[in-house]
């Protein structure tokens, strides 16, 4: 049984890796003549995603849903924005990508690009499978709470590059359950409704 579970989780991890590689994105400054204009291209062939352009205080300036199996291209004219730091964020089922953009009086500069791998949850036949790529081998805490915020189970995992976990909800009482995954300073939640 352990061998079957390990094979299933390995296949799920490969599926996650394929999803992450299938989404390609590019952000660039168009030209010197249009120095405050950015061009964003996104080839989204695996999963739905959310695009957001936000300021340093977290105010959303632009947002749009990106459907899977589509190519997306968008020009951002930033000439009306005040000088400062802004972020172009793309979030799909597997990762969050953020471009840090510095807008000045006369030009725009793409300062950096960062990616965070998110946990991937798959629900099937009363089971919930969790996979998380943890290349930095950060400490990971996985907790399950019931609808009354009581801890059902909690586990600390250390020094693991690949976190794989299966939760059996087949005989769970009806109601809402929350799976909390804390990796370093990042925390993710997944709601599970048992009917």
SSE topology string: HEEEEEEEEEEEEEEE
Question: Within the largest sheet, what's the order of strands?
Answer: 4-3-6-7-8
> What's the helical proportion of residues?
10-25%
* Structural shape: elongated
Please mark out the parts with pLDDT under 50 across 5 or more consecutive residues, or reply none: 11-22
Give the CATH architecture of the largest domain.
Sandwich
How many angstroms does the end-to-end distance come to?
27 Å
Please tell me the total number of domains. Answer: 2
| Assembly annotation | single chain
CATH superfamily of the largest domain: Macroglobulin (MG2) domain
**Average pLDDT:** 84
Tell me the name of the CATH class of the largest domain.
Mainly Beta
SS class: mainly beta
Largest sheet, if any?
5 strands, antiparallel
CATH topology of the largest domain: Immunoglobulin-like
Give a count of the beta strands, DSSP E runs of length 2 or more: 15
Share of residues in strands: over 45%
Radius of gyration: 20 Å
Separate helix tally: 1
Topology summary:
Elements: H1 2-22, E1 23-29, E2 37-44, E3 49-55, E4 60-66, E5 70-77, E6 84-92, E7 95-103, E8 108-117, E9 120-124, E10 127-133, E11 140-145, E12 151-157, E13 162-168, E14 175-183, E15 186-194
Antiparallel strand pairs: 1-2, 2-5, 3-4, 3-6, 6-7, 7-8, 9-10, 10-13, 11-12, 11-14, 14-15
């Amino acid at each position: 049984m352990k061998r079957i579970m390990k094979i299933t989780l390995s296949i799920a991890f490969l599926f996650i890796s394929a999803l992450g590689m299938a989404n390609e994105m590019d952000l660039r400054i168009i030209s010197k003549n249009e120095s405050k204009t950015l061009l964003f291209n996104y080839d989204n062939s695996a999963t739905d995603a959310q695009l957001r352009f936000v300021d340093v205080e977290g105010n959303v300036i632009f947002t749009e849903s990106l459907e899977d199996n589509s190519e997306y291209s968008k020009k951002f004219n930033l000439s009306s924005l005040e000088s400062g730091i802004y972020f172009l964020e793309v979030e799909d089922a597997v990762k969050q990508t953020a471009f840090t953009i510095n807008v000045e009086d006369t030009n725009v500069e793409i300062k950096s690009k960062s990616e965070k791998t998110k946990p991937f949850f798959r629900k099937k036949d009363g089971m919930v499978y969790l996979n998380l790529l943890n290349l930095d081998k950060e400490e990971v805490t996985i907790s399950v709470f019931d609808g009354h915020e009581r801890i059902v189970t909690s586990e600390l995992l250390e020094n693991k590059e690949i976190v794989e976990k299966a939760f059996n909800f087949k005989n769970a009482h009806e109601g809402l359950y929350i799976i909390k995954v804390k990796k370093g300073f990042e925390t993710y939640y997944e709601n599970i409704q048992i009917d």
